[in-house]
Amino acid sequence: MNTFHLRVIKPEKVVYEAEVISLSLPTSSGQVTVLANHEPMVMRVVTGEMVVRSLGDGGKEKEEPMAVAGGTVEIKKDEVVVLANRAEHVHELDIEKAKEARTRIEGEIEKIKSDHASYEGLLQQLHKEHNRIKMYEKYRS
């Protein structure tokens, strides 16, 4: 089975590095799936679900979902680098923290609807927390 090298990096650390079969991630052009020998390109990563497929123990295929928010992906023939503003493995998601943040942000949005710039920033934060909760409920519930 053809594989490629994947590195997922966020500002403070390398989150994931391994040989993988495929990568599916949210981009500004829509959900994109990358396989080995993909055409080289660079795209903007948006908030959503990223799924890495690799070979686990005994050669069995495994999925590793992550919540991502913002960044860039560079795709080369045999290597992919995701520079993410935020990338969290599903097992790292703190559902209570995400729900508290969502509630706080929703309250702030109600207060500042007339301030367009602040409103847009809060909507982006809210979208990130909704994504974290959705990923937690999909993969950990």
Can you characterise this structure?
This protein has helices spanning 95-111, 116-140, and strands spanning 4-10, 13-20, 22-27, 30-35, 41-45, 48-55, 61-75, 79-89. Strand 3 and strand 4 form a beta hairpin. The protein has 141 residues and is an alpha+beta fold.
Highlighted features:
eight-stranded mixed β-sheet, alpha+beta, 141 residues, 2 helices, ATP Synthase, domain 1, single chain
What's a concise summary of this model?
By secondary structure, this protein is of the alpha+beta class. Helix content is 30%, strand content 47%.
Q: What does the average pLDDT come to?
A: 90
The CATH architecture of the largest domain: Sandwich
Note the run of SSEs as H and E: EEEEEEEEHH
Q: How many angstroms does the end-to-end distance come to?
A: 32 Å
Q: Which oligomerization state do the chains in this entry correspond to?
A: single chain
**What proportion strand?**
over 45%
